[in-house]
Amino acid sequence: MLPHQLELLSPARDADIGIEAINHGADAVYIGGPSFGARAHADNTVADIERLARHAHRFHSRVFVTLNTILRDDELEPARRLAWALYEAGVDALIIQDMGLLELDLPPIQLHASTQTDIRTPEKARFLQDVGLSQIVLARELTLPQIAAIDAALGPRDAPGRAVLEFFIHGALCVAYSGQCYISHARTGRSANRGDCSQACRLPYEVKDSQGRIIAHDKHVLSMKDNNQSANLRALVDAGIRSFKIEGRYKDMGYVKNITAHYRQLLDDILQERPELARGSSGRCTYTFTPDPNQNFNREFTDYFVNGRRIDIGAFDTPKNPGQPIGWVTRLGGEWLELETHEAHTTLSNGDGLCYYDLQHNLVGLQTNRVERVGPGAEGGTRWRVFPKDPMSGFKDLRPGTTVNRNRSMEWVRTLDKPSADRRIGVWATLTDGSDGLELTLTDEDGHVGSAQLAGAWPLAKDPIQAMDKCREQLGRLGETIFQAHDIQVQLSQPWFVPASQINALRRHAVASLEAARAQAYQRPARAQPVHPPVPYPEDTLSYLANVFNHKARDFYARHGVRVIAAAYEAHEEEGEVSLMITKHCVRYSLSLCPKQAKGVTGVQGTVKAEPLQLINGKEKLTLRFDCKPCEMHVVGKIKRSVLRQAAEQPLTFYRRRPDAQAAH
């Protein structure tokens, strides 16, 4: 990708969703391969990925495959073979976490640093660039000034080997710094760093202070709202971001279509304003719908830390989708309820998902079985009678006046179940004649040229104007192709009468020639070369937080000057209490118990201290400790004995021996 290009990077659970992401405007798609991706249940065959790559490359869009789990020793060779298979299938880049892969005989494929590598500092980013990573996914917790500092540390954007900065702009947020969460493994043996997170962060907890007082009850205090950077794209461009990533490799087709189209339009607006910037692929999209992020599952939205710390980043009441308010309850019957919508044009459909909050502020779902329009409302909306799928007696605290939200619209679902986008590459067509017959030349918006010839002799047309109009009409019939005619020039020495069937054949051959020219011109991004001699890692000691799980990763860090290298948490050498999660989110701050918040407040200053808190979910207990200097929170606990016993019964192969100082040099 060139330094002036902006890349919209969309997720794909499978190849069909990836193809629709391309059709809806993605410049690149990331997808899981058959194994070793950080979403354990989003795997795809190499053949399906090859099919996706063929389609993407028609638009000069790219396909990245996630190979971003930490690997055991016995997985290194299968991972190496998979990398070669993906390269031969046409994949453009691998997204990796495990530095052991850099010690293997990999194909000449571009490598990207996963967000799991926990890139928060200019030093870490520069190191990853210097060891040959071409694109680096920054931590979601960074502010605009921090992003700009990393951008500056990488050097001139047009320098050879300069890495592209990638940033998540939409979707679910991990509360921990990515790669720095071990709660799932400690509790269940399922490792987030190996693609199998149990999502303990979405559970409800009781929060107690150091004196045992309950300060929050049954709250999802580790559950974040969803990321939405729609309002910050221009600022992110200015800070140095060039790849804009949508989260969601578990998401369905409708989500990917809608969110890709939403950001495609926003980025196109920026490109219209800034001619010095360009798209990362070819073609323009039209849609059958108006993109709207509120229509998809979300936990409400936050821009997280991009503009500094905010108090309202958490989805503490529920990890579910609260939807959008559409009206309120007016009457209740034995098998139905009536509601009035806020807007007269709001339409309900059978199967819509509705919800409301009970008196304890718990979200209660209400799926409609059947709806009937009753008539106009008293306050300008429309009255509807709703027959729920479940008995009315089960809806706690439902009463007249209760606000009703809709979190699934069947009308919207049906719209996105149909073909909903058309992506076309602009072409200029010129038809000329000569002694050998006709020649049609197609030149696309990227400067690629395709042509076709038609030999023969034709009579003069009886109606020259009509003949030329018909000729242009036939040449412009590109509906079954990926092209759209911007201009058609018919430059004939005489107004020949050429049958439509022959013009159509000429057009088809010219289109095939242009597609072949585009395919031949497409070049996969080149692998960056590491700096020699090897640059030193920013630290000379690595704890379990570095996620070193195999001997090749250990060799990598030793080669880059690290003297002490601990094994990954999954190696079970840390059996006592450790930080199971490190996060920029602070429960004290969100509950207005932060000492910095109290600073300068008369009568409060000095009375609020950053003492530990305790999280309790059933029999599970975790401790929250607060590191106020970097403004971070640590969730502290230890691995369960049952996890250790299970691991002992199924021993793993990995590099356990720590090098001594002499061996590291």
UniProtKB/TrEMBL annotation:
Q: What biological-process GO terms show up in the record? A: proteolysis
Chain ranges of the Peptidase U32 collagenase domain: 404-518
Q: Which Pfam families match?
A: DUF3656, Peptidase_U32
PROSITE patterns reported in the protein's UniProt record: PEPTIDASE_U32 (PS01276)
> Which GO molecular-function terms appear in the entry?
peptidase activity
Q: Which UniProt keywords apply?
A: Hydrolase, Protease
For whether the record's keyword set contains Cell membrane, the answer is no
Name this protein carries in UniProt: Putative protease
Q: What is the lineage of its organism?
A: Bacteria, Pseudomonadati, Pseudomonadota, Betaproteobacteria, Burkholderiales
